[in-house]
Amino acid sequence: MSTKARNDLFRRFASKEMTKLTLSQYYTAGRHLLKQRNSSDGGFSAFRLTAGFLHRELPVRIGQTVIGLKENPSPYDIRQVPQFKALMDNYTDDLSLLADRTPSPSTPATTEQFVDTLRRLKSRSKANMRLLAQGLRELSWAINSQDARIVPSFLRPSTVRQRAQTCGGLHYYSSTLAYPDLSAPMAYLAPSGKMEMTDPAQWTQGSAQPDREAKYQSFGAVPSVPQQWAPNKVCSEFCDEASCRNPRLWINDGTQQCAENQTRRFFDWLYSMNLGTQLLIEDHVAILDYGHNLVQIIQPLDIATRAAHDASLICERHYGFPAPVVKIIAPKSGITTTYVPHHLYSMLFQLVKNALRATVEHHKNQRSAFPVIKLVMSSGDEDVSFKVSDEGGGIPLSQVDAIWSYLETTKDPADASEPLPSTIEKRNALSSITFMQRAIDLPLFGEGDGLPMVRQIARYFGGDLDLVSMEGVGTDAYLHLSRSRNATEPGLNLHTLLESSMPVSEPRPSSASTLA
Known about the structure:
- This protein is α+β, with helices and mostly antiparallel strands.
- 47% of the residues lie in helices and 9% in strands.
- The chain is built from 17 helices and nine strands.
- The strands form three sheets. The protein has a five-stranded mixed β-sheet, covered by helices on one side.
- Strand 6 and strand 7 form a beta hairpin.
- It is globular.
- The chain starts with a helix and ends with a helix.
């Protein structure tokens, strides 16, 4: 595809917003399609409506994912990471396949052609998620090694030391989550630990970059310039980062923390886009090919029991001796809720696996008397909640924030270049249908979703994941699922993401050159 054709393709979807769906919509549409699947026309009449929606919606989601990768709100130049470049190429090809090479599903023949396209996209999802995981490991390695191609000069050690000497270690942490009205005085927590008021005269209004309009012109919209933070000042009272609320956790160079937060926010968005696109595709393929939908009425206790069992098997295989006991406590064992079974399984599987590893590593000299790991399930009017409690030594408060970083990994960076799976593996592995069957084949650590991604899965339909840790004792992980079937997909669209990210990095080429 020529550069002009690619730019035209991206432009078609840049200004559109994704349609946010609810669990109820997924479940109702799935049950209806299943009922019509064995009708005289093979379910064509029913599926034509949903296929038409997918034909319009999937290009918007995939197109915005491509643009987000190319625009890259992160200060690190991820375009220099081969895995991210390959990921962009894959999504570009997926977008072209959907938008230009697959006709609208208006007849039985074109509908079957569209279903074949969905099957092809589903078979690629494993490879794309693997590229994303490998790219994050490679990016982490590049940051740790200060790769000049990827890490901007203002985030390298020499510049950091210079800022520390110049600024005297003042806290100038910048929130990427909100831009308050800087024209009025505002209360803030000063490094001294006292509440003080800002002086509006000391704030600066961010000016538009010379190429800012050109940067967005090719996408059909020029976002407004947000108010910017002046350096070496204060943290907004609206910032919700734990490391910003607690003065003890402030670091000398807030620019590095700002870069980490922007990177985290970008990959939160990217993973959510991947998650939603994959769920749309796999749900419809599962209905047509396997006769069941992915959003179901489930018994959470059954899934929790299986996740704990499989995580224990992995622990035993890794260490070569019996794993710590996982005790499941469920006062209301028969509760049901509407959710995606393999999403809940993958989250609990990861949490229990982490608890097992921490317990064994912390008590490795007493193999016959490991503390019990508790998995507690409770249900209320609004939430189904799980608590995974271990006595694995806990985490220092200063390191808790790093748990949610996508750039932290327990995998050897050298493994980031390992070959991609075979075509058969791409087709079968990590699909919504086979994930739980093959999870016990994963290693104890270095693979799987990881806590940042687990939290994004939890938040996707209105839940959340929190950790409370006591150093020297252990950690409690709290997983919440919303019982509301009207919980919608996340609402952060591409333009909001780009507008709310501070230009903390060095000048980059405009989008015209980026898309070339």
